[in-house]
Amino acid sequence: MQLLGIHHVAIICSNYPRSKHFYSEILKLTIINEHYRAQRQSYKLDLALPDGSQLELFSFNDAPSRPSYPEAQGLRHLAFKVGCINTAKHYLESHNVIVENIREDEITGKKFTFFADPDGLPLELYAL
């Protein structure tokens, strides 16, 4: 068996309209499909990134909050590749997204920074 890449990452949000706006309008991910599943009282939104990978955004009633601080076991963060990290940081800040200072990866020498989605999920920008 050989893994070929990441197909998608699934995210459960607390406020579907707010998160849909964040991922589709601010982060500019392309909406592929949007479904309301009445039996589950849940939305499922499929979003595409330019490289073909996808995000699935779910809403579930009464989903527990994600423990983040101190960091819990499990998925630590989701990182997005960007061409110019300074431009990406400025763009997010112009949309009132709080972005940490840009740092340099001590191993690769690449620039990176962190921000959060509307539910506090840690997201990273990583320069190519």
UniProtKB/TrEMBL annotation:
InterPro entries cross-referenced by the UniProt entry: Fosfomycin_Res_Enzymes, Glyas_Bleomycin-R_OHBP_Dase, Glyas_Fos-R_dOase_dom, VOC_core, YwkD-like_dom
One Pfam match: Glyoxalase
The organism's place on the tree of life at top rank: Bacteria
GO MF annotation list: metal ion binding
PROSITE patterns: VOC (PS51819)
Key words, A-Z: Metal-binding
Record domain VOC: where: 5-128
Record bears the keyword Metal-binding: yes
PANTHER family tied to this protein: FOSFOMYCIN RESISTANCE PROTEIN FOSX (PTHR36113:SF6), LYASE, PUTATIVE-RELATED-RELATED (PTHR36113)
Name of the protein in question: VOC domain-containing protein
Record lineage: Bacteria, Pseudomonadati, Pseudomonadota, Gammaproteobacteria, Alteromonadales
